[in-house]
Design a protein that fits this description.
mainly beta; 10% helix; five-stranded mixed sheet; globular
Length: 154
């Protein structure tokens, strides 16, 4: 299964991002969506698992979008929270965060949990430019996890 991971889109889904998301089995959004129409646009591509970010107050994404979102897909336990420090790595296999607009992938040395921040495609804060994440799983195992640099057209 292919999980495309995004965060901090802040009300703008670049056409290049929407093209890249085509074919995803699931989209995971780690908060600061900032647009109900963007949330529903993503849902037309694939099922969306999203959490609220600090700029999502007052948005009506539905009852499944909370400050902390947990789900199971392909036998893997996921947790999604905008803030890395609020993740509970003891109860999940993959943990997704956002907020910093700085991408990273790491394995927690105590739990073995895969932790990812996909960065931001809208307002990146690194020299990598706009980024998102992609995780491929098969039969309950992570096959690959990567940060993808999004090439925006001028």
């Amino acid at each position: 299964m292919r999980f495309d991971i995004i965060s901090d889109t802040h009300g703008y889904l670049a056409p290049e991002l929407l093209r890249e998301l085509q074919g995803a089995d699931h989209i995971v959004h780690a908060g600061d969506i900032c647009s109900e129409s963007d949330y529903y646009c993503l849902g037309r591509i694939a099922p969306v698992h999203a959490c609220l970010g600090n700029n999502d107050g007052g948005m009506a994404y539905g009852r499944d979008v909370k400050r902390m979102t947990s789900f199971v897909a392909d036998g893997i336990r996921w947790q999604v929270c905008h803030y890395q420090e609020r993740l509970d790595l003891k109860v999940c296999d993959i943990a997704i965060c956002g907020h910093s607009h700085r991408p990273f992938i790491e394995r927690d040395k105590y739990t073995g949990t895969l932790v990812m921040n996909p960065g931001s495609t809208t307002f990146p804060r690194t020299t990598m430019g706009p980024t998102y994440g992609r995780i491929i799983t098969e039969d309950g195992e992570v096959i690959s996890a990567e940060i993808v640099c999004l090439e925006l057209e001028p």
